[in-house]
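Running low. Got one?
___
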Amino acid sequence: MSETALARMRPERRAALIDAAAREFASRPFEEASLNRIISSCGMSKSSFYHVVDSKDDLFSLVVADLAATARRFWTPPVPDSFRDGFWDRARSVWDDVVRTWPDSPELTLLWHIVYANSDDRTVRELAVRVEEWVRAVLTAGRESASIDVECPLELQTLSVFSLLRTFDEWSLKLTESDSAAVGPEAAAAHQFRLLTRLLRA
């Protein structure tokens, strides 16, 4: 990918490219995503597109990085050490903050769709590793403050919570796309947090 050519793109053209690519990658697995559809959707010529982007892999990495950076402007994960005092109150506050923030960030929704449609991609795995490391650090803070069950091995707790969070995200995405969901966003978030506390509480 030509960083120079990318930097020279007009902001609105770059935004159109990222948006078209994000919607394509969010709607289908990487192998089924079409560069031709992306190029057509953002109104670029093929020669202009390939002047900026070398491959579908490069474009995918760019989209994930761009969406993650934009989503962080809406919500940034708090420092794990901030959970040491009043772990469960802090966890509840962060959980509620995420629930409030998500609807205001279409970039975060697109990113989640991309992650779950392309979980085996290298870029997605790297992002997942960073999230898992944050989860482990938060759990460590909870264990050290005697707020979380320390008899369960940390690695098992980390894997369980990370897997549960993925399940929560997938369920929440399905609920937002359903016109007849029996559970609203706030009730869904309350059920999820209750499950999480039952899993972990000391």
User: Anything to note?
Assistant: The mean pLDDT is 88. The chain has two domains: 3-68, 75-200. The radius of gyration is 19 Å.
